[in-house]
Amino acid sequence: MTGTSASAGVTVYVPREATARALGADAVARALQEQASRRGQPIRLVRTGSRGLFWLEPLVEVATAEGRIGYGPVKVGDVSGLCDAGLLQGAAHRLRQGPVESISYLKRQERLTCARLGVIDPVSVEDYRSHGGYAGLAAALAMQPADIVQAVSDSGLRGRGGAAFPTGIKWKTVLGALGAQKYIVCNADEGDSGTFSDRLLMEGDPFCLIEGMTIAALAVGATRGYIYLRWEYPQAHAILAEAIAAAYEHGLLGTDVMGSGRAFDLQVRMGAGAYICGEETSLLESLEGRRGQIRFKPPLPAIKGLFGCPTVVNNVITFASVPIILARGAPYYRDFGMGRSRGSLPIQLAGNVARGGLVERAFGVTLRELLYDYGGGTRCRSADRWGPTGPSRASTHRWTTKRSRRPAACSATAASWCSTTASTWPRRRAMRWNSAPSSHAASARPAASALPAGWRSSTGSWPAIAARCRKRCCAICAIPWCMDRCARWAGSPRIRCSRRWTIFRKIFPNLPGGGRLGADSCNRLPNGIWARRRASRRSGSR
Question: Considering the domain 2-103 in this protein, what is its CATH number?
Fold first, then answer.
């Protein structure tokens, strides 16, 4: 918080989140202070997080009798004109958006986890408490550890990192594990393309994450915690460090949490930029000071995790969802969502949309709502639903306008939506997502008797080659790695891998349909091909 005391003037809110700063929020804040000082109108400037309306950033808010009035997007050159028009009184201006809570983008959302984003000073404990903060921790301190775990289980909360594993089951495993020392680890290595919800929460409401991790520590009997943060988030690191220091100062962390006699210490550790450390066991290896490499399972981290001790590993949104469950009760949270997917999910809109940003809705929202009601429309021909590093498990095909009314709810959380045009989308990724689905049942394989005579291999019959099929698919073009099933598309217009096709023609020299390659070829040779080439050579030598 900067500026004069609270009683000396109008309160003006300017975000300090990384996206807003990149768009000039710091310069706007300085210009506002200069203009207010020059005009003799003292203001109380509060630097908040972002509300997630990136198309309006920097969004300047002014506290008035009507509520907080928003103006955006504000540039440095607009500040003088805004002050002349009566910014501090919430007067009319071409940039005036009206009461911020009434903006349709926000009004239709169901913000549970992200309710305080853009509303509070992220490093003020008093501000956080005045908006319902630490009510969940106070409730948890009055409960037994097993009751806390049961409340999380009853809420239906699942991991928001992509795997969607039930959070209550993981915590129950750690609670029942034997060990003198237990750990709480937050995976804040948000490295997937187009994702930013973790960063927004850490920069706009860090105490929510701290409170959620403290509740988890009370639930499983842990006394130490770590936030593993990606090094590309320096702003989040600075805000987290300031918030943790404030929590220690107010007795919310340390040897006596809220006067309960319970201990919990929390530190932030920066990663070195390795993408693999987003996987939980690689993250634990990195925390221990070793190279980030995936561990074999079992044992699971819940049994033998950090430094060989039972460890809870969850991501930022999962931990940040816990305080509201304890504060308002498991039934309240469970009433949101559908099927096995309960609660809400922060969804990130990026790409060719008119209004990119953060949308938090209960599970069940449709793609059409996201793209048109929130995103403001798109020029794209289709959109792709993403999970970590690619299409979500529930859908490997493109979503067109005809299918956009399908609810976007599944157990494996689709964290972001990317809408693009064909001209701007990388060709390889477009080929991968436009090709055949990657899962092919063995029953779909054609019978050997149904194959044309010319499809007999020079190195063996079709059944012999089929026996070597590993039922896996190319990571680029989504065509199965096994040669026999590649024959199904040999004469079709579907996308083909040129190198795969060359080798395939050597094994099946008499294939019908000619040897023309499609215009789109990914020129990628899967590693599994080499093993089959060696096998075919051995067969030929015999």
Answer: 3.40.30.10
